[in-house]
Design a protein that fits this description.
Layout: H1 8-13, H2 16-22, H3 26-81, H4 85-182, H5 187-198, H6 203-217
Length: 218
């Protein structure tokens, strides 16, 4: 059995998806499996021609042997019909040898046919696995991109939240300062203002005011 055919059971039994589901680093494992599949595919293509050639040769030899058996049987029948039993027996003896040979050739052909079928099945399986791997690779890249985008959005949202909190704090401080400045002055401030104003009057007005105060006391 040729090289790649020795891996037939392993290739056909492999379950890439199940192995990837258990992998700690699926992306790396996908790359490793893809390299292995490409290597296997190269070997399959390189050996397929030889295997198919063996199958065609085994079939041709088998068919030739079958034809020889039919021919000897026909000769034996004609010999019997002509009363030549001696030659009829010789034809049948040669036919028996060919029948034994045919059995061996049939085994060889069955093996060659099975090898050719195995090569075809391996090629189909490898193509299928490569397709699945490529699909998983694209899916994984999509998930990674989505995760990075989500992380970026989360980071941006955190920055925006911090900016909004800072703006709100500045606004609250501004409102508080405005309210503080808008509060009415207390009575002491008004009294001081009146006293300051009274000190700025002229003597005549001050004399008039003092007279009014004296009259009010009487």
């Amino acid at each position: 059995m040729m090289g790649i055919l020795s891996r037939f059971k392993d290739i056909m039994a492999s379950n890439m998806n199940a192995l990837l589901d258990k992998a700690e680093d699926p992306e790396k494992m996908i790359d490793d499996y893809m390299r292995q599949l490409n290597s296997d595919m190269g070997k399959v293509k390189a050996e397929t021609a030889s295997v198919l050639s063996d199958e065609r040769r085994a079939k041709r030899v088998l068919d030739e042997c079958s034809a020889e058996i039919r021919k000897l049987l026909n000769y034996a029948e004609k010999a019997v019909e002509s009363g030549d039993e001696e030659n009829a027996l010789k034809f049948l003896e040669r036919k028996a040898i060919q029948v034994e040979k045919l059995n061996q050739l049939q085994v060889a052909y069955d093996t060659a046919y099975a090898n050719a079928l195995s090569m075809k099945q391996m090629q189909e399986k490898i193509v299928l696995d490569m397709g699945h791997l490529e699909g998983r690779r694209l899916h994984l890249k999509g998930k990674i991109a989505a995760t990075k985008a989500q992380q970026k959005n989360t980071s941006s949202a955190s920055v925006l939240d911090a900016m909004e909190e800072k703006i709100n704090l500045a606004y609250d401080e501004a409102v508080a300062l405005a309210e503080l400045r808008a509060e009415p002055k207390d009575d002491l401030d008004d009294l001081i203002a009146q006293l300051e104003k009274s000190t700025n009057t002229n003597p005549e007005d001050e004399l008039s005011a003092m007279k009014d105060q004296i009259k009010n006391k009487e």
